[in-house]
Each structure stands twice: as C-alpha cells, then as structure tokens.
Amino acid sequence: MESILELKNISKTFSKSNFTLENLSFSLPYGSILGFVGENGAGKTTTIGCILNTIRKDSGTVKLFGQEMQDDDTALREKIGVVYDGDNFPGFWTAKQLSQVMSGFYSQWDHALFQKYLQAFGLPETQKIKQFSRGMTMKLAIAAALSHHPQLLILDEATSGLDPIMRDEMLDVFLDFVQEENHSILLSSHITSDLEKVADHIAFIHDGRLILTASKDDLIYRYAVLRCKESQFQMLDPSDVIAFRKRDFQIDVLVSDGKTAEKKYKDIVTDHVSIDEIMLLLVKGESL
Amino acid sequence: MKGLLKNNFYATLPGAKTLILVMVLVGAFIAAVISQSLLIAYIVLGIIGFSEIALGIAKDEFSCKWGKYKLTLPVKRADIIKSQFLNQLLWMAVGIVFAIIVTALSWLLHGSLFDTPLDTVTTFVMGISMSLFAGALFFPLFYCFGEERGNVLIGLSLVCSFGFDCAIVTVFNYYAKPGPQKSLLGIIILMAASLLAFGLSYPLTVRIFKRREY
Description:
A: alpha/beta; Rossmann fold; 2 domains; four-stranded antiparallel sheet; B: mainly alpha; globular
C-alpha cells in the first residue's frame, strides 16, 4: 500500500537531556489514521519535529508524499496541516486576523471553509485568542489546519486539553477528513480511548524506541492478555510472550494471538485487551 | 512572503499603536516649544522606538507555539528572517515619517532649530544608524542564544548600537581632517557602516536560524 508518510530508521540524540530517538520506522498509508501513542517524554513530539523539519534528524529518511521534504519544498507543506498542543497562535490576534494571515501563507486558503468551522465549533471571529478557553484554542487550531485543504494532518496531542464531548466532536471531524481516500492523519496522543475510536493503525513509542506497530483491529481483536498464576506463567512458551507484568496475585501476559493462546493454554483466563492495557504492559512490563 | 509580512504587521501593530499615540502627543508638544535638544531626542528616539518594537515581535512569537508553527507553513526559513528584516525597515520608516513631520512643523512655527540643514540630516542619520546597528546585532544574537533571552538581547543591542555610533564618530573626529566636507563624510561613513552591518547580519541570521531546532 502506498504511504503518504514514511519514516525509515530515524535517529536523533539530544546530548543535553541524554534522550535518544532510536531507529524509528513506520509508515502512514493514504486514507488512514495512525495513532502515535506513548507516555509523556517518549519521543512523540521529537518524531513529529523530525517529520516537519523543525528538528534536524541525525540519520534516517522521512518521506512525505513520496519525497524527502527540504526547507525549500514549500509546495509540500501546502499539503500538510499541523496542530500542536497548547497555544498555536499569538493571543493578541483574533480568528479573523488569523484567517487574513493564513490566506497570505496558503495559496488554497479557504476563507469560507474557515468561517464554516468557526460557526460549527462556536468560535467568535472578533474576540482575541487570549480570551479563548483552552478547548476553544484547540478547536481554532484544528479549524486553521483544515481550512487550506491539506491532504495530511499532523496532530500533536491536539485533543489533550479537550473535554470528552469536545474530543468526540473533533474525532468526528477527523473521521470526516479521512473519508477522502488521499487524506491521512498522524494523531499523536496519550489518550488511548481517542485512538480506539478513530485510528486504523497504532504505533507505540517508549523511551525513544518504537515498541509495537499494528492495526487497531489486530490489537483489539487478536491481541489478548493472559491472567496467569506464577506456576502457569512458568509453563508459557517464551515465544508467545510479548510482555508481562507482575501484579499482586497474578501475572498479566500480553500475547499477539489470543485465540491460539486460548487453545494452547486452556486453564489460563484469556481476556480481550484495551489499547490502554497494551500500553501499560509494553511500557511498565518486562519481556522474557 | 505575503503571509509573513501580514503576520509581522499584525504582530507589531499592538505595540506600535501605543507608540504612535505617544509620538503624536509628544510630537505636538515638541513642535510647539522651541528646544533643539528635545527635537533631537524626538527624532533619534522616535526612529529607534519603532525599530525596537519591530525587533520585539521575533521574541513574542516564541511566547506561544507560533514561532515553531510558522516553520510548518509553506515558507522558507530564509524568508522568515527576510520578512523580519523588512519589518524592521518598514517600522523604522514610520519613525522617520513622524520625525520628519514634527521637524517640519517645528520649522514652520519657529524656523529651523538647527544651525545648518546638514545638522538636521546628521540627527536623522544617528537615529537610523542606531536602529540598523540594533537590528544587525539583535537578530543573529536572538537566534543564536534563544528566545528566552529576547528582552536582554533587545536592551543589549540598543546599548551596543549607541556604542557603535559613538565609537565611529569618535574615531572619525580623531582622524578626519577639518574642512567643509567633514560633516558630510561623517554622515556617509555612519550610514555606510550601519547599512553594511545590517546587510551582513541578514545572511548570518539565516545561517544561524537554519540550524536552530524547535
């Protein structure tokens, strides 16, 4: 399947903080949403920085629309919409001024579409952005990111400050966006419930390393967690164990094929696993 | 570039509005009274004041994520820097216009407060050259040492620009032979030095900014 975004062996080291992004590789197919999950400080924003060239990678390649983006490739950036967590725009602007500024940047800026989003999201046009609530600023950023008809949305914790109702509204907007088959979204978040609702693929990052990439359906329907006693855990085939975590009276074991595991280990309780639990097992658990 | 210029204009406007109000009120007073020293201060500080406000926007853009967000827009990093240099020139020009209007008003009401027309030009050149030196210093230092030092760097660049002007005038007066062309030559040297610094600062700032990570 052709990819709108492809990362190959991306590495980046920050000598001051001792943080390293290690050989990160994943791709985002056209017409899909990739959930990029990891705890705070795992390397999600650094990865997005490498994609968007706000951070210089040490090695590896990032291909957007099949080509590596350089500083001069402004035409490529016309096709990308970005939303960062927090205040994306100066507080002394109004939404109207933002639209005027953006129309100077994007050749395809659609003022009518922007107005439509402002109305749909209940955002005032002439109020200063600094008087907006956090949820309103995030909605404004999403409206701005969508109003130049991008093909790729890169959202860095774009739903993190929103209440569940607002988040649900935004997720519907994202689902609408990917109805067009040449549109895709890279959605970085640590709110796994959002990703369960909208993502097609999920990539887990931890401590600068990609620890798992899979389709959401596989994670939800194929992956499973075995609730073992210590004695049962000792009997497990190590090749079946992706990660395990010792609890008070049981050991939770993440396996990639729940049905096979259920047949193989008949006396062990096999549960469906949520993305939240997968993340916890991968991040806090151990491997054999 | 159009988007960048609009962005810079909207970013500078809130600060400039306040300064414009102050310039109008103070300018009316200075035009009304007969004081050469006040007029000199108005010309020099007016030109520098507008330039400083324009410098401040680079700093303000990093008080939110806009400075980083801009890098994801369809613009080149070199164009971002170019627009900031142009913005400084634009607002310096606004300062010059105010200074010209008040000088002309003063001249209409009281006659020239300067001994010769060249003295008037020298005063304007002092303001312009200090603004140019301040910009030439501020932009590379800002992108080199980071946005958190923005306020300090604005002050530092202003002090240094004053120092540069004083140093050039002192050295010139020491070496230049007395004569009718001395003042004119001094003005030319001051303008040329500040323009050269401003011109050289641009590629240096671009070079630094291209290496910066956000």
